[in-house]
Structure of L,D-transpeptidase family protein:
Amino acid sequence: MVPFQSYLLRCLPVMLGMALISCAAPPRIIDKKRPPQKADYVMYEWYDDTGPGKVAININLSEQRARYTRGGRDIGWSYVATGKEGYGTPSGRYSITEKIVDKHSNRYGWIEDEWGNVTNGDAKPSTAVPAGERYVPAPMPYWMRLTSYGIGMHAGIIPKPGEAASHGCIRLPKELAPVLFESVNVGTPVTITH
């Protein structure tokens, strides 16, 4: 037998083994165009035992988090989005004075074209509306009023957990807002601190 053929015959089992191993696991394809997905934030936890005691809410502006208690027992926490720069959420002691399931802002909204595309995402009722477009007041579902001048808690977008983003209101995670709304009453205390 020719030395080269002998060499091939000895290498054949090794090459066959490598080929079979490469079939066992699909190749890992790395897409360099898309960054890896970040883990989703846990936006809230709710574990109310509905036992004795009244609900109280504590909002920390520095952390952008709320803590919920019933009779002094922790019943949950959530991220919130409070007033961004120039629209600060005031600290202090408040109580819920009004509850409305389906409220819309009389101060803020957006302008959209006839197809529903937003052309101005930060408009006021006084903002000039181009022909063929319309002003849409911002929805504030599960509204819980805290002040006479328009500050309250409601379901809303929390674009970056831990960062302020609103015009002064306290935005709550959309899934938590109806649960909290049903758990509080007019008179529920809300403390806002830095």
The chain is about 15% helix and 35% strand. Residues 64 and 162 are 5 Å apart (CA to CA).
